[in-house]
Amino acid sequence: MAQKKPKFYVVWRGRETGVYDSWDACQKQTAGFDGALYKSFDSKPAALKAYKDKPHQHIGQGKKPEATSAKIPGLVGSPIEDSLVVDAAWNTATGDMEYQGIYLATKQKLFLKGPYADGTNNIGEFLAIVHALALLHQKGSNIPIYSDSRTAISWVKNKKANTKLEETARNEELFELLDRAETWLKTHRYANPILKWETTVWGENPADFGRK
């Protein structure tokens, strides 16, 4: 069987820039780093040469990092197997919402919550991330968390669910959960990177409920 050729990774923007000879080493510099710029090359000379160039010469003709990362597999790489992936489902007919989280490496379901009446998908995604953070905090684990919701990731970053949903008697429990989640974020520190699941490159989020 032919031996797999080694890859070399250029990090133009990350915790430490440079040329790395393994994907794990590259990920340590880029995972969870906002606006990270990196790409793989087939040889070390090519990587060393590219490192001296401007990154847009290799990864997107001057596009913004966020726009580029969702479209170029060589830039995005592969998801980290040792991670927790979350997703939410919202029933358009009933308004019920539920969320869950799985361990990516084994596809083991770690939690499933709901359904909750009169919710939204963004609220579910937000609660799922915070639930994952709290669970991993209890276990003393700093593994990454993936979500395919940029909105929910920004809410977690801001420690506030910026929802326009009105509180009613039916969704009172849901708003209590939101209050608890926001309080947890404001009173706890965590080192888990919260990363975007790149659906266009990797396929459907493994925590998806499969009801589309």
Task: List key phrases describing it.
five-stranded mixed β-sheet, EC 3.1.26.4, endonuclease, alpha/beta, 212 residues, Ribosomal_bL9/RNase_H1_N, 37% helix, RNase_H1_N_sf
End-to-end CA span = 41 Å
- Shape descriptor: elongated
Mean pLDDT: 85
Structural class: alpha/beta
Q: How are the strands ordered across the major sheet?
A: 6-5-4-7-8
Order of helices and strands: EEHEHHHHEEEHEHHEH
Query: Strand content of the residues, in percent?
Result: 15-25%
Number of helices: 9
Q: What composes the largest sheet?
A: 5 strands, mixed
Number of strands: 8
Measured as a percent range, the helix fraction is 25-40%
Rg is: 19 Å
How would you characterize the overall build of this protein?
There is one protein chain. Helix content is 37%, strand content 20%. With 212 residues, it is α/β, with parallel strands linked by helices. It has a 5-stranded mixed sheet, with helices on one face. A 3-stranded antiparallel sheet has the order 2-1-3, sandwiched between helices. A hairpin with a 6-residue loop joins strand 4 and strand 5. It is elongated, with a radius of gyration of 19 Å. The N and C termini lie far apart (41 Å). This is Ribonuclease H.
